[in-house]
Amino acid sequence: MKNNVIYIAVLCLLPFGLAVAAEPPVAPETPEQGFALPGPLTLQQCLTVALERNPDLEASQLDPVIAVRRIEKAETLWLPRYSSSAKFRELETPHAEHAAFNRGNTSQSVTTSNGFTGTLPTGMTYDLGADTTMTRAQSSTDRRPDSEYSLTTGLTVTQPLLKNSGLFGNAHTTAYTIEVEKLNRHLSLETLRERLVSQLTVVEYAFYDLQVAKETERARRASYAYTARLERESREKEKKGAASKLAVYQAQAGTARSLTSLLSATQGRRERENRLRELLRLHDEAGAPPRSLKLLLPAVRAPALLPMEESVRQGLASRPEYLAQKRELEIKGLDLRYEKNQAYPALDLSGGYGVTGSAGNFGNAVDRTGSWEGPDWNVQLALSLPLGRPSAAYQADIKELENRKLLLGLKSLEERIVREVLDR
């Protein structure tokens, strides 16, 4: 029964085997006309071309630049602001007895204000300004106008002691924003490094995978040539009567299996070539891409043996995903400190000091102001707290749970990296 099955199988493969035997072995493929490469591709060339032709990596390289611009934008919040204004006012006060016929007293005033406001890293806000007022009054009985100049200068500062205070860390909103943007810049660099390493790893794997496919195709081509030679020898022996028909059919079946294996290896090699072309984006050039890529393997070097502790340390320090997750943990920790500060009541200490000088002309008003004849100062302590637990306290609880979750994920990633290092 078994011999009958084999005989039927051989008869089914006979036409295909005869056609294969009539044809010469598959010749090596010749490259098509297309994008020309300078000789065989080395691994370094593949890595360089893959990085230069990847628009996703090029877009990722802009993330650190954007992060720097965000830092510069946030730091502008520390810059003082200059403000200036001018106001004109006219007031007429009629006499009560002759309101319908007498215009009464008329006064005109021009007020100008100039000042600087800003915020310091401690959260203190300041307001330094000067106001100048010129008033001219004229009555209906006395046509000679009376002029008076008034100059007021002063400084007012407000320092948060609890909420939004920068005395004990970056709890102020501006300082918190700048620190977060700095950490985001480091995170964008680590993310870019992770994408670079990932892309290089994929290209390196595709390079060696193609080389393995080429070697597999070469071995199966040699196997096909061997089985074809055995088939020819079987035919010659069968003509001389030294071999049976069944031996010829078996040789033909072996040739068919070898050819099928060769075709499968050729298809696998083409698929891996297409994969490497996609990574290198060779098809983006004018013309069709080459059908065959020649590779030049680098020299194999024995890796240097390091102590176990040093290998683990370098393994953790060279993994961009691990470093990026550490940056995220730092950002979460900063978020947690900020939200805890926002849950505090607002306790602000403010104070101001100023002088005012008045005279019939502007020069005397300036002299009196400079002589500190009219000092004015004040101190204020303001408290504001919500009735009940504030929403910031619940937000701090959420941030703490997220921080703990990210820390557990970091520990899991660290254990996985250590296992990978030890397994190698």
Q: Would you tell me the structural class of the helices and strands?
A: alpha+beta
Poorly predicted tracts of residues: 1-36
Please summarize the sheet with the most strands. Answer: 6 strands, antiparallel
User: In total, how many beta strands?
Assistant: 8
Name the beta content range: 15-25%
Overall average residue pLDDT = 81
Tell me the distance between the termini. Answer: 52 Å
How do the strands of the widest beta sheet line up side by side?
A: 2-3-4-5-7-8
Number of helices: 10
Summarize the topology:
Elements: H1 2-22, E1 41-42, H2 43-52, H3 55-60, H4 62-75, E2 81-93, E3 105-119, E4 125-138, E5 146-160, H5 173-240, H6 245-280, E6 295-296, H7 308-317, H8 320-342, E7 346-359, H9 362-370, E8 375-384, H10 391-423
Parallel strand pairs: 1-6
Antiparallel strand pairs: 2-3, 3-4, 4-5, 5-7, 7-8
Give a verbal description of the structure.
54% of the residues lie in helices and 20% in strands. The chain is of the alpha+beta class. The strands form two sheets. Strands 2-3-4-5-7-8 form a six-stranded antiparallel beta sheet. Strands 1-6 form a two-stranded parallel ribbon.
Keywords for this entry:
424 residues; 6-stranded antiparallel sheet; two-stranded parallel sheet; 10 helices; 54% helix; 20% strand
